[in-house]
Amino acid sequence: MARVATGESVLSRAVRILAVFGPDERALRVSDIAARTGLHVATASRLVAEMVQLGLLGREDDRRVRVGVRLWELASRASPTLSLREAAMPFLEDLHAVVGHHAQLGVRDGTDVLFVERLSAPGAVVNYTRIAGRLPLHASSSGLVLLAHAPHELQERVLAAPLARFTPHTICTPSRLRRTLADVRRTGHASCPGFIHEQALGVAVPITDGTRAVVAAVSVIVPNDPTDDQATRAVVPALRAAARGISRTLSR
Amino acid sequence: MARVATGESVLSRAVRILAVFGPDERALRVSDIAARTGLHVATASRLVAEMVQLGLLGREDDRRVRVGVRLWELASRASPTLSLREAAMPFLEDLHAVVGHHAQLGVRDGTDVLFVERLSAPGAVVNYTRIAGRLPLHASSSGLVLLAHAPHELQERVLAAPLARFTPHTICTPSRLRRTLADVRRTGHASCPGFIHEQALGVAVPITDGTRAVVAAVSVIVPNDPTDDQATRAVVPALRAAARGISRTLSR
DNA sequence: ACCCGATTCTCATTCATCGAGAGGGATTCA
DNA sequence: TGAATCCCTCTCGATGAATGAGAATCGGGT
Question: Which residue of B25, B26, B82 is in closest CB contact with A131?
């Protein structure tokens, strides 16, 4: 039977297949994939079979498929995220030991911050961040740091878009976001009490490379105590020390 | 002009493009990619442009392209390697603190061990292992553990293939490999003095999931001192403790 | 400013890919 | 245990997404 003209490439279809997997759905059947992507089941079956053969997907025993180990390898071994993470790791571990709770490393991707590393402790405060997870730039401390030092065009684009609200404390007006970005540039850090979760305070500072360009943010998530107005001030020195160490390593 | 019938799919070509990037070559030009893959430069240019658009690749400022952050995200967020790594991380950190040098986490992929995590210390003994790097099963302590507990068919396949030699100590005969695998199953650990590098001793134990299947190996690399025949015995208890903790976490 | 290599664009051609439908296997339910 | 249903794969005719040749454009070096 004649193929249907959609103008969509095979590559685009394969990426959409990969995109249906997530931390909450790590294995899916072919019929699920077809349903989620809108692909014909015969097409989905054939593409899945080829992706399995290439290592992009792997088959489980119960007819479901999952993301393949080879894909992780191809994506990681030459990835800027891995080299950044390797440079950052010793400093992130130190930061984590000092501050406890969560220590995180994020990079900008489009209008989001993507977390490439997160160290957590048992009993740490609630944290919605996941490794390989995203948050909008305006709503997280890492995101605000990355946005404050982003090209002007990107800042305008974020300011022009709807600003999603997670809690009553999340920034959701352009004017407040402009003021916050100016503060971040002036003080060199971002502090976000209750932006994503009422009980969590996020604090982040920028990481620069050898050309002083901001390439990532390092942050911690600690308990948000509205009666403690010194909590941010307490963690900033350790964040800055970690950031300096990471930047130094990146500059070699 | 008419396309040339090679029988090769677009997906296969895209994977071959991704495969040319490695830890030693993280950014390449389109003409390099065409040369390495044998693709026509117009085809390489077009595929690269599309992969950039999809986030599988990213453009650098100097006409070179690198692996894209979105690819890392798709590969990681639902990856069994990431969930294994997250389960293992606290125990790996403890192991690393106790043993020093290197602590590693590996999974089997085909006839190789793929390292999904590696913690290293400043001044640690030489280690050729890289995160997202591979070693043949027969030549590394992690690999021997994974092979010893692999399906019989895979063991026969490895035994039938040429066994690559890295140092004079590397296992390179089938009979010696059979004996070693039997020892690994009997003792519950693998010890590899000087297999990959003369000065490095690798020791590994298996990690099981809830069904007692061996799903990964945890290992350490410490200095290889031929006059110290107790080095392996010294690290095995800490390795076993880490493996038990990881297995327990995986079984929830 | 010029040259050259690298890259992209255009376009005729075609084969890799598609979807419909059939067939077989797996799962579920009575 | 058998029937019904669902899931998945395979085949094949149709075709448009993809290719490669050559021209055009761009970027870097001198």
Answer: B82
Q: What is the mean pLDDT of chain B?
A: 94
Domains and CATH numbers, chain A: 10-73 (1.10.10.10), 80-250 (3.30.450.40)
Asked if B54's CB is within 8 angstroms of A12's CB, the reply is yes
ipTM: 0.94
CA nearest neighbour of A131 among A120, A141, A123, A122 = A120
Taking an 8 Å cut-off on Cβ atoms, the answer to whether A78 and B22 are in contact is: yes
- Which string of DSSP letters, residue by residue, matches B108-151? EETTEEEEEEEEE-TTPPP----TT-EEEGGGSHHHHHHHHTS-
Nucleotide nearest to A5 (CA to C1'): D16
In the prediction, which pLDDT does A85 show? 92
Q: Is B47 a residue whose pLDDT tops 70?
A: yes
Nearest by CB to B69, from A26, A54, A107: name it: A107
The contacts of residue B166 (CB under 8 Å, 6+ apart) are B139, B195, B196, B197
Average of per-residue pLDDT across A44-68: 95
Please give the share of chain B, as a percent, with pLDDT higher than 70.
100
Q: How far is A146 from chain B (nearest CA, A)?
A: 15
In angstroms, how far is D18 C1' from A152 CA? Answer: 38
The two tokens of residue A208 are: 């620069």
Over residues B181-236, the pLDDT tens digits come to 999 999 999 999 999 999 999 999 999 988 889 999 999 999 999 888 899 999 99
Task: Give me B93's structure tokens.
Answer: 């950190």
What band does A54 get if pLDDT is binned at 50, 70 and 90? very high
Contact B191, B225 (CB under 8 A): no
Interface probe with B: pick from A12, A62, A76, A249, most Cβ of B within 10 Å: A76
Neighbour-count burial of A219, counting CB atoms closer than 10 A to its CB (0-12 exposed, 13-18 middle, 19+ buried): buried
Q: What tokens does B4 get? A: 């040339």
- CB-strand contact A33/C, under 7 Å: no
Q: Which nucleotide is nearest to B9 (CA to C1')?
A: C16
Distance from CA of B166 to the nearest CA of A (A): 22
How many whole angstroms separate alpha carbon A209 and alpha carbon A215? 6
